[in-house]
């Protein structure tokens, strides 16, 4: 009974603080204000996932987040296709890090990718190699299909441009790191890939690596769907 009473008091205090911030009675730093736009440059915290969720159906918030991302993007017209409809999608063309090719992405995927590049990928490269990643190689994002292409399976996150398959990276000195070739090794390249995988889990809802199954032996699948998995 005492625990429930304490829990109710905590919830009440959280509610009071939330209303006070929302009405402007209390000022918080933007990174700790749940209604402030997401700033890609700010260090991710407990509110980052919530702010990413808000981007899904709010193109204006999306544009505000992208303005701090450094990504070059082109907004795409909504597609009313009944099989795999798309809305609020972008073509990501690159940024501080080059891409093997542009890719189609939901706003939330694009912003999550920017967060991943800035707060997970580059710190891992600096920690392991002492240099930056200059290119991300990928296998694509949008594909109107079910999971694993199975006829009776549910829709893949790729079918809504909410997923990206990352195959490898190029370093500033020209070296390339491949998920397929380097994940099984016991060296700094394998250590780097594992740090990248672990860091990605803070920016995406689902991250699947070769540890998940053989279908992911050559790439990291990252998505912003409703499930939370880090393997």
Task: Describe the 3D structure.
The model has no long low-confidence stretch (mean pLDDT 89). The protein has 231 residues and is α+β, with helices and mostly antiparallel strands. The N and C termini lie far apart (39 Å). It has helices at 2-22, 48-54, 59-66, 107-129, 179-182, 188-200, and strands spanning 72-75, 89-94, 98-99, 103-106, 133-140, 163-171, 176-178, 206-208, 220-223, 229-230. The longest helix is centred in the middle third of the chain and has 23 residues, at 107-129. It has two domains: 1-34; 37-230, no CATH class. A hairpin with a 4-residue loop joins strand 6 and strand 7 (176-178).
Q: What would you call the structural class?
A: alpha+beta
Order of SSEs, N→C? Answer: HHHEEEEHEEEHHEEE
Strand content: 15-25%
- SS summary, helix count: 6
Largest sheet: 7 strands, mixed
């Amino acid at each position: 009974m005492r625990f429930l009473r304490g829990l109710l008091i905590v919830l009440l205090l959280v509610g009071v603080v939330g209303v006070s911030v929302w009405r402007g009675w209390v000022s918080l730093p933007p990174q700790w204000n749940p209604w402030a736009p997401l700033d890609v440059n700010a260090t991710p915290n407990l509110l980052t996932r919530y702010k990413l969720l808000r981007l899904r159906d709010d193109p204006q918030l999306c544009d505000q987040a992208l303005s701090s991302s450094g990504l070059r993007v082109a907004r795409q017209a909504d597609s009313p296709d009944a099989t795999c409809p798309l809305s609020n999608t972008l073509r990501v063309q690159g940024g501080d890090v080059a891409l093997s090719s542009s890719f189609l992405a939901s706003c939330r995927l694009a912003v999550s990718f920017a967060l991943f590049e800035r707060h997970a990928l580059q710190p891992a490269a600096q920690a392991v190699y002492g240099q930056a990643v200059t290119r991300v190689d990928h296998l694509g994002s949008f594909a109107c299909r079910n999971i694993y292409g199975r006829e009776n399976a549910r829709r893949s996150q790729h079918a809504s441009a909410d997923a990206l398959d990352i195959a490898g990276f190029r370093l500033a000195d020209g070296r390339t790191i491949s998920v397929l070739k380097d994940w099984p090794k016991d060296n700094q390249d394998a250590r780097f890939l594992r740090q990248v995988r672990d860091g990605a889990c803070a920016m995406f809802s689902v991250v699947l690596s070769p540890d998940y199954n053989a279908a992911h032996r050559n790439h990291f699948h990252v998505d912003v769907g409703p499930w939370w998995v880090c393997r």
